Amino acid sequence: MFALVVRFNLTDDDAAARFDALVADLLPQIAAHEPGTLTYAVHTVHDAPLSRLFYESYRDRDAHAEHERQPHTAHFLQAKDALLVDARVEFLTPTGSGT
Q1: Cα(32)–Cα(29) distance, rounded to whole angstroms?
Q2: For residue range 14-61, what is the model confidence (pLDDT) as tens digits?
Q3: Over the stretch 61-82, which tens digit does the pLDDT of each residue have?
Q4: What pLDDT sits at residue 89?
Q5: In 3-state terms, what secondary structure has residue 67?
Q6: How many domains does the chain have?
Q7: Where would I find the ABM domain in this sequence (predicted)?
Q8: Are 38 and 1 in contact (CB under 8 A)?
Q9: Is residue 99 part of a domain?
Q10: Long-range CB contacts for residues 27-31, cutoff 8 Å, separation at least 24
Q11: What pLDDT is attached to residue 78?
Q12: What is the DSSP letter of 95?
């Protein structure tokens, strides 16, 4: 499995609404076209209404690469930039015996 967490910090309430609309368009496309994407969960951060946290898990690195090649992902990645203060990506490695 390959997993990552991304935190997006948005510029203002309007940007947050526009970002959430992009996510609403993105999620069904991922579900329909990406069998290697195991989890793609999006959350608003408690006490940080202008932040969104994505948890993504993929069957393997190849599935993540396939996700990155999708036109719906490319559209999201391009469109989100104008809405952000910053973003941080954390690639995860399993620790211990859990999966």
Answers
A1: 5
A2: 999 999 999 999 999 999 999 999 999 999 999 999 999 999 999 999
A3: 999 999 999 999 999 999 999 9
A4: 98
A5: helix
A6: 1
A7: 2-99
A8: yes
A9: no
A10: 29/70, 29/72, 30/67, 30/70, 30/72, 30/73
A11: 97
A12: -
pTM over 0.85: yes
Q: Determine, yes or no, domain membership for 63.
A: yes
User: Domain for residue 98, yes or no?
Assistant: no
Amino acid identity, position 88: R
Dist. CA 99–CA 97, nearest whole Å? 7
3-state secondary structure of 18: helix
Q: Which domain holds residue 64?
A: 2-92
Q: Say if 30 falls within a structural domain.
A: yes
Given this model, what pLDDT does residue 6 score?
Answer: 98
> For residue 69, what is the domain's CATH number?
3.30.70.100
Place of tokens 């203060």: 85
Task: Identify the H or E element spanning 24.
Answer: helix 13-33
